[in-house]
Automatic annotation (TrEMBL):
Name listed for the protein in its UniProt record: Adenosylhomocysteinase
GO molecular function, one term: adenosylhomocysteinase activity
Catalytic activity: S-adenosyl-L-homocysteine + H2O = L-homocysteine + adenosine
Enzyme class: hydrolase
GO cellular component: cytosol
Organism: Geodia barretti
């Protein structure tokens, strides 16, 4: 993670986070560990809890505690009660800055743990679902402190969402099932940056790709990109593999489950396990069995078998290792620099959701290019004058 390493080296010298406590609710992986170490080198006291019950790498969690003294509240496979007790443990550290992936930390702060709001100066949010929740909170006038939408930075969603999710989703499904992608009909619910990435890679593996959407512009883009576009009502009848990436609820619902073909595979790569209607699947099935790790086969009343992967949770982290470090390098660089920005300017920010400052976004891109040995052009004085002038025409 060369970009984050460069930031970490500067942080170690300048200590821009001295005196601040940071509580993170993120996927506890080796990539996240590098972010925490950068924050620690910047002078911050850090603590972390898991943002997903199935994404924790237990060896990383142990190393953070025993090797680096970072309080870590995460166990792979933890139940819901333990999950929220871990969130509360992270909040017990009385953070000044929060880092969230899905907004569960912020939601808890605004409901059950309002006592921990004192002293908070700002936060950041890593993923699309979390930003949606936070913007809703802000629009209702209930957000209590400023949040930077790291997810919306170009160096995050262009790369992490498209290239990271695109590769790691197929990786997780392949590890769980050992399927052959070539010739399969893959139905992708949602054509945001994550959906674009998964669709591109599924087609590259020889699959026939079908996209379902609610946004007419994205649906048109999917069609122009060469994918079949149709409603989920129609796609449900022909799909071999269904992958949800909407950030919403019940993208695959009861009516779709009722008409799926025998042997269909259902996987989710959205943040929460609500994109597939699992309660309906449970109700419609006569029974289920685990046929492989992370694969539950549901036997339907009419004899069909449907396979749910990773309990409907993020399949790239449930059954694989998540995004490659090369893309998380940029996402976590955005997180680190956003924390530095909050340390400097949070006092002047209102309780709203903010974009990552453009100069931070571009700095991350510049550092990434530098690490790759790529040089780009810069404008000459004459070119800058031309672009900044309205008098010069034909």
């Amino acid at each position: 993670m060369p970009v984050l390493r460069q930031i970490r080296e500067r942080f170690a010298k300048e200590k821009p986070l001295t005196g601040l406590r940071v509580a993170a609710c993120l996927h506890v992986t080796s990539e996240t560990a590098n972010l925490l170490l950068a924050l620690q080198d910047g002078g911050a006291e850090t603590a972390i809890c898991a943002s997903n019950p199935l994404s924790t790498q237990d060896d990383v969690a142990a190393a953070l505690v025993h090797e680096y003294g970072i309080p870590t509240f995460a166990i792979k496979g933890e139940d819901s009660e333990t999950y929220y007790s871990h969130i509360n443990s992270a909040l017990d550290t009385k953070p000044h800055i929060t880092m969230d992936d899905g907004a569960d930390l912020v939601a808890t702060l605004h409901t059950d743990r309002t006592d921990a709001l004192d002293g908070l100066i700002g936060g950041s949010e890593e993923t699309t679902t979390g930003v949606i929740r936070l913007r809703s909170l802000a629009e209702a006038g209930k957000l209590k402190y400023p949040i930077i939408a790291v997810n919306d930075a170009d160096t995050k969603h262009f790369f992490d969402n498209r290239y990271g999710t695109g590769q790691s989703t197929l990786d997780g499904i392949t590890r769980a099932t050992n399927i052959l992608w070539a010739g399969k009909t893959v139905v992708l619910a949602g054509y945001g940056w994550c959906g674009r990435g998964v669709a591109l890679r599924a087609r590259g593996m020889g699959a026939q790709t079908v996209v379902t959407e609610i946004n007419p512009i994205r649906a048109l883009e999917a069609a122009m990109d060469g994918h079949q576009v149709m409603s989920m009502d129609n796609a449900a009848k022909i799909g071999d593999i269904f992958i949800t990436l909407t950030g919403g609820i019940k993208a695959v619902g009861r009516q779709h489950i009722e008409v799926m073909k025998d042997g269909a595979i259902l996987a989710n790569s959205g943040h929460f396990n609500v994109e597939i209607d699992i309660p309906a699947l449970e109700e419609l099935a006569d029974g289920k069995q685990e046929v492989r790790p992370f694969v539950d086969e549901y036997l339907m009343g009419d004899g069909r078998r449907l396979n749910l992967l990773g309990e409907g949770r993020l399949i790239n982290l449930a059954a694989a290792e998540g995004h490659p470090s090369a893309v998380m390098d940029m996402s976590f660089a955005d997180q680190a620099l956003s924390a530095e920005y909050l340390a400097q300017f949070a006092h002047s920010l209102k309780p709203q959701v903010y974009d990552v400052p453009r100069d931070i976004d571009e700095e991350v891109g510049r550092l990434k290019l530098l690490s790759m040995g790529i040089t780009i052009d810069t404008l000459t004085a004459e070119q800058e004058e031309y672009l900044g002038s309205w008098e010069v025409g034909t």
